[in-house]
Write a structure and sequence with these properties.
By secondary structure, the chain is mainly α. The chain has seven helices and two strands, in the order H-H-H-H-E-E-H-H-H. Helix content is 60%, strand content 5%. It has a two-stranded antiparallel sheet with strand order 1-2. Helix 1 crosses helix 2, helix 5 runs antiparallel to helix 6 and helix 6 runs antiparallel to helix 7.
């Protein structure tokens, strides 16, 4: 359908009696129609055609209005989407305040933090010396952390592939002692920290309980022996404690298999 450019309502009826329409008028008269009837037919035909164009004009107005509303709705939706995206981006850039548990209770003791090497070992269910969990081992880890950045990476072989891992996670300490070389004080303090960290790493309860029971029995043996023996005898009998410490080592190694 051709687009109507002007409103047909505003059009005036032509003067069909004028010379411009003489040929049309004469054709009617030649067919036996009177002049008055011919003029009336011509006017009636124009009025019918004009009404058709008026109806088409109204349809065209409605179509244009609908298209305009749809375009405005699309523009509004696009603007809303852009504003929403801008708000999301602004929200991402906004400084975040971390949430906290207002019912949390601060512990009354501070558990020394072992080295990344030791923590990685227990996360991987691998054996690691108890020394790393002793105060001396944690102090050594703290001293090394000042000289080795935790962001430093090195190459390591993982399942046949070369991968980047934090240097601190696979760097063993040269000061580490074997479990049977630990003093009783070192062993007693290290095993507590060790048991806490294997629990945090999600070890099986059965393994945790077995290791805790061994450490508990070693503690009872040593405390009872220490209270009943002199210093000289204590040094002589310390070998028995070392044997039990080695038993604990065996169980810990078995637990990591």
């Amino acid at each position: 359908m051709n687009c109507i450019l002007t409103d047909p309502v505003l059009e005036a009826q032509p003067n069909f009696a004028s010379a411009a329409y003489a040929g049309w008028l004469n054709a009617y008269i030649a067919g036996g129609t009177t002049r008055e009837d011919a003029l009336e037919r011509m006017a009636e035909g124009w009025r019918i055609e004009r009404q058709e164009r008026i109806d088409l004009w109204q349809q065209q107005l409605e179509t244009d209005a609908l298209a305009l509303r749809e375009q405005e709705e699309r523009d509004h939706a696009n603007k809303e989407a852009e504003e929403q995206e801008e708000r999301r981006e602004a929200e991402k850039k906004k400084p975040k305040i971390s949430d906290f548990d207002d019912n949390a209770v601060v512990a009354d003791i501070i558990i020394p933090r072992p080295s990344q090497f030791a923590l990685q070992k227990i996360k991987s269910m691998e054996y690691v010396e108890l020394w790393y969990f002793s105060p001396e081992g944690c102090r050594d880890a703290s001293d090394n952390s000042r000289s080795t950045s935790e962001d430093a990476f090195g190459f390591a072989k993982v399942d046949g592939f070369v991968a980047l891992k934090p240097v601190a996670s696979f760097k063993a300490s040269q000061k580490a002692l074997q479990d049977h070389d630990l003093s009783w004080r070192q062993f007693d303090m290290a095993k507590t920290s060790y048991l806490v960290h294997i629990e945090k790493c999600g070890w099986l309860d059965k393994h945790q309980q077995a290791l805790a029971m061994i450490c508990f029995n070693i503690g009872i043996f040593n405390n009872t022996l220490y209270n009943s023996l002199s210093d000289d005898v204590w040094e002589a009998e310390r070998d028995e404690s070392i044997k039990m410490s080695r038993l604990a080592v065996c169980i810990r190694k078995y637990s990591t298999l």
